[in-house]
Recover the amino acids of this structure.
């Protein structure tokens, strides 16, 4: 199943894409005129409301840059990965509002169920995230706590190396926005060689949050599910995987040193530089099937 990335429109235009005119220069032909489809990047304001001792409270929680079109799953994934709530069932509703005046700001209001209070940092520690960085910066990195909700699957010898080699292709062939724009990251969840869901976003962190939000809401988690990334693997992406209980990460790019440290700390299988013919295994070899003699 593929996530809905173009579910709404503005004046008939998919919210995640915008066509712009441009000039192209070549030595043989000089300038020529055409148009390109570009990935849209807009800010999303997320506010949370809840009941405390019978009184209603509402606060602005975060502002994040993202590719529009799958905001509900993004919000679910963000709230879970940042430990604001314990479960997707703590959320009563997510309502999206569009600021029609400028078309440049979108607002989401999250309502928590009765008796659920969010874990919110002090206002000085609330974050504004960008598509390239996610939740980063010296202050917020120090505030991040790895809170493991799910126990990692510890089964041995279930993942075939040949299957790993196919995963970047499985992700790529399901990246519809990337093939139209060339400018978005992708994240896939693969179980037993089957692609369960794919999410795309201008930000690699958002792609994972959209994916994890969908998996939580649909209760599609599997103990031997594999997270496949089109990008490098950083601290923030590892943190999201730890909290979700995803034990295996396969990436087209390289991991950071901290990502490898986290994989070792939580007994995760971390694979990087994955191509059609080879990959690098940084931790968790016991989950891979041994070579045939």
């Amino acid at each position: 199943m593929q996530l809905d990335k173009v579910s709404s429109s503005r004046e008939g235009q998919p919210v995640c894409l915008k066509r712009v005119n441009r000039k192209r220069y070549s030595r043989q032909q000089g300038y020529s005129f055409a148009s390109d489809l570009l990935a849209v990047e807009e800010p999303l304001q997320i506010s949370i409301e809840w009941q405390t001792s019978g009184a209603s409270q509402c606060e602005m929680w975060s502002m994040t840059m993202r590719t529009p079109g799958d905001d509900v799953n993004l919000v679910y994934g963000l709230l879970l990965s940042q430990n604001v709530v314990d479960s997707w069932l703590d959320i009563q509703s997510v309502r999206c509002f569009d600021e029609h005046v400028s078309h440049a700001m979108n607002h989401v209001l999250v309502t928590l169920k009765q008796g659920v209070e969010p874990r919110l940092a002090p206002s000085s520690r609330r974050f504004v995230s960008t598509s390239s960085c996610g939740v980063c910066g010296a202050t917020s990195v120090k505030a991040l706590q790895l809170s493991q909700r799910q126990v990692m699957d510890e089964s041995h010898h279930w993942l075939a190396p040949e299957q790993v080699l196919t995963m970047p292709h499985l992700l790529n062939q399901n990246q519809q926005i990337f093939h139209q724009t060339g400018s978005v990251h992708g994240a896939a969840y693969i179980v037993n060689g089957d692609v369960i869901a794919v999410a795309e976003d201008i930000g690699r962190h958002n792609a994972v949050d959209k994916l994890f939000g969908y998996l939580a809401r649909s209760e599609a988690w599997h103990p031997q599910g594999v997270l496949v990334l089109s990008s490098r693997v950083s601290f923030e992406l590892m943190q999201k995987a730890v909290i979700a209980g995803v034990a295996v990460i396969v990436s087209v790019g390289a991991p950071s040193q901290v990502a490898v440290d986290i994989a070792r700390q939580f007994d995760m299988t971390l694979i990087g530089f994955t191509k059609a013919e080879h990959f690098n295994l940084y931790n968790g070899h016991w989950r891979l099937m041994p070579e045939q003699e």
Summary: Residues 4-13, 136-146 have pLDDT under 50 and may be disordered. The helical segments are 71-81, 138-143, 161-172, 176-181, 204-218, 235-244, 257-265. The chain has seven helices and 15 strands.
